[in-house]
Write a structure and sequence with these properties.
The structure is a homodimer. By secondary structure, chain A is α/β, with parallel strands linked by helices. Chain A has 13 helices and nine strands. In chain A, helix 5 links the parallel strand 5 and strand 6. In chain A, helix 10 packs parallel to helix 13. The longest helix of chain A is centred in the middle third of the chain and has 23 residues. The first copy, chain A, is globular. Strand 2 of chain A pairs antiparallel with strand 1 of chain B, so a sheet runs across the interface.
């Protein structure tokens, strides 16, 4: 194990925490750019409550709405322009992962005279890594990407059909204000995709990381077991606040560095899915639900011991030894069965998925 | 679950990381106060290697040696005076938990005109909570207290026979430079006490925290299982670098906020032990090895379900239900048996411990 870890985001986690938005935002700015998605925060009243809390604390607001499910670089450019034109000094993301990701890059683009697409790694020899950004406060309304407490962002370029990422220290939110009550109105399909996203964040490090990470393995298994148990409860009753809170907490720890620190693995499943959704514009978690089990079946043949451990510790299967591929495959079947039980049916044309699936499994 | 979490310490974890001390220290200062303990870092050559690395990076040093196993406020006063007199701008703790704890309070005392004992909570109506401190870099040579990556410090007052703590944001080390190679020369008894300390840090939140923390429970169990498995390996062969690394990593995550976030529990076992060692000046982990099982037997009767879970998940026992006190007690017996197997025999007079034990168990 050899690694570095750093995460300075202050996390405030509590049902009802939205009421504190004004108080915490006023510690960082006087004029906020409120970044939002497709309108659900308006319909649910969350937007009005946020604005009221900010107003009460003396923080004025200007809005950048309409961030897409796969947030586009054109939207990032638009948001950064609004922030500059309106003299914003803090950015508040009120929404799901796409909203938070877009807000982070807007915050860095505020100080960058070039095109923000320069920051997103897309094969250019030397991406521009931002070193300065407006303070960002994340207020997630969906448990999925973990973007609320990390320094990553994934942005799509609709013109070039590219979807890729940026990671930079200045992109850590100053505050993650996490109110699990806000996720209670998330519909079943998005809840299910979120659960798949959470689990995939930790399976990446679990299966792709270096050997000899027993604590990280246990942490990852803890996230998976909890996301499965409470995910099903949240799907059964979306107003189950405890279930929503546990899934939200799982989403945070799955990708804030705690579980993957020292695993030093890549994110192949995410990379494959990003490519697919750059073309098909599907929900990230839905794509992962197809890609991850397929990738696991491929990878298990090369590293069966990790998949046997997964089968044993997650599903209680009895393996005959670290090379018991049948046990490994049974664990993957069970995992895919779990995903299907949540309703993770990819919402795209079957022939598209057939081709994608065939390509991955060849 | 309702909580806040914040930890801005940058962690560098690698075998051989000591060689980077100069490089990272030079980012924070030009003249370092090197805080050390009883001389083992001199005998092992670690001190000379640290000074050489600092010199190479242009960081001059002045030393405050002789920090006691239970660090004393007199030593804190002495260190702060040296730092002021010598114009230090960074403090480096090179040693175990006591060295790191003393260094933190010296760093805050540097800016405080009053007596640093004001900062240590000892029943005064309003302790002085420091808001400013010199940057501290921790370089642990022992896996135990987790002080390398948290904002806590425990200090003793030999005159008043008090041992208590301070917690303040300004006490977070700027960098934890963790090189598990440095723990390879730790003798067996101190290794064993460290393992007990690590496990007790997570059992505090596990048994005393609020209900409904499934992820934290799994994280705690992961730390316990890993500390037990790799702790025994480190005891068997102190030069087993992988075992030392896993135990070191366990010590960090046990008390950097990751496992206890949201459990919102007290630290009764630590509080009892602090009182005992304030009088008997014994090693903290040795005291915990007596207090923790005794306390667990007391607490199990009031909250059996958590102890049944512990027995099941740590020792694989079969419980008949959440109220199966026999199963809970069997788990505690097994745990105490594990501690004894590590050699955690309290190095104090038997009659003292007898009295203490009797008091706790009444």
């Amino acid at each position: 194990m050899k690694f570095e870890y750093y995460n300075p985001t202050r996390l405030i986690f509590a049902a009802g925490a939205l009421a504190r938005l004004g108080e915490v935002a006023s510690q960082h700015g006087k004029r906020a750019l409120l970044v939002t998605g497709g309108g659900s925060v308006k319909r649910s009243g969350v937007f009005d409550r946020a604005v009221a809390s900010l107003k009460l604390a003396g923080v004025s607001t200007v809005e950048c709405s309409g961030v897409e499910p796969n947030p586009r670089i054109t939207t990032v450019r638009r948001g950064a322009r609004i922030a500059r034109d309106e003299g914003c000094d803090v950015i508040i993301a009120l929404g799901g992962g796409s909203t938070m990701d877009a807000a982070k890059v807007m915050a860095a683009a505020f100080y960058y005279d070039g095109d923000p697409w320069d920051m997103i790694y897309h094969g250019q020899p030397k991406p521009y890594v931002p070193t300065r950004a407006l303070p960002v406060i994340t207020v997630p309304t969906l448990a999925a990407t973990g973007s609320e407490m990390n320094m990553g962002s994934v942005i799509s370029n609709e013109e070039t059909k590219e979807k890729s990422f940026v990671q930079a220290k200045c992109l850590y939110p100053v505050i993650a204000l996490v109110d699990p009550e806000l996720t209670m109105s998330v519909p079943q399909d998005q809840t299910a995709y979120g659960i798949c996203d959470i689990i995939t964040h930790v399976t990446e490090g679990y299966f792709n990381g270096v050997d000899g990470t027993p604590i990280q393995d246990r942490f990852a298994e803890g996230v998976i077991l909890t996301a499965m148990e409470y995910g099903l409860k949240a799907l059964e009753d979306g107003t189950n606040l405890d279930a929503r809170a546990q899934v939200q907490w799982a989403s945070i720890v799955a990708l804030n560095g705690w579980v993957n620190a020292g695993t030093n693995g890549g994110f192949p499943v995410h990379m494959i899915e990003h490519t697919l959704s750059a073309y098909h514009d599907i929900t990230h978690g839905a794509g992962l639900s197809v890609v991850n089990p397929a990738w696991m079946r491929f990878a298990a043949r090369h590293r069966p011991e990790k998949f046997v451990q997964f089968a044993q510790r997650i599903f209680g299967l009895k393996g005959k030894g670290p090379d018991d591929l049948a046990c490994a495959m049974e664990g993957i079947d069970r995992f895919e069965g779990f995903l299907r039980s949540t309703g993770c049916d990819p919402p795209v044309r079957a022939e598209d998925w057939g081709r994608a699936y065939d390509t991955i499994c060849q």
